[in-house]
Design goal:
Elements: H1 4-18, E1 22-26, E2 31-36, E3 50-56, E4 67-74, H2 78-94, H3 101-109
Antiparallel strand pairs: 1-2, 2-3, 3-4
Helix pairs in contact: 2-3
């Protein structure tokens, strides 16, 4: 069984990678909102799309993948949102039983 401390370290890792774009709603089980934008060296004029993902885990995380949902978007149509969530959920299934929060966010960046 994964220790609560390990999950806490993973939440800290997401915060380290995404900084102010990561809002922790609950530390354990982790529930986060993460704003994802293309990596354009912070040139906001080149950032045409963005999405805020909700990542809500249950007490069985990482054995049970978190629920992923769209909180907010800019410039991302419904079809692309659906594809994005599906690809993140596929990655979550692939990484089942592993720590995956940063990896799931990275799927959205790419």
């Amino acid at each position: 069984m994964v220790e609560e401390e390990e999950v806490g370290l993973e939440v800290e890792a997401v915060q380290a990678v995404y900084g102010d774009d990561c809002r922790v709603i609950l530390d354990y089980p982790p529930h986060l909102n993460v704003r994802i934008r293309p990596r354009t060296a912070d040139n906001s004029s080149q950032q045409f799309v963005e999405v805020t993902l909700g990542i809500k885990s249950c007490a069985q995380y990482p054995g049970e993948p978190p629920h992923i949902y769209v909180v907010d978007t800019k410039g991302l149509g419904e079809n692309r949102q659906t594809c994005l969530i599906a690809s993140i959920q596929n990655k979550a299934q692939e990484l089942s039983s592993c720590m995956m929060l940063v990896a799931l966010c990275e799927v959205a960046v790419n």
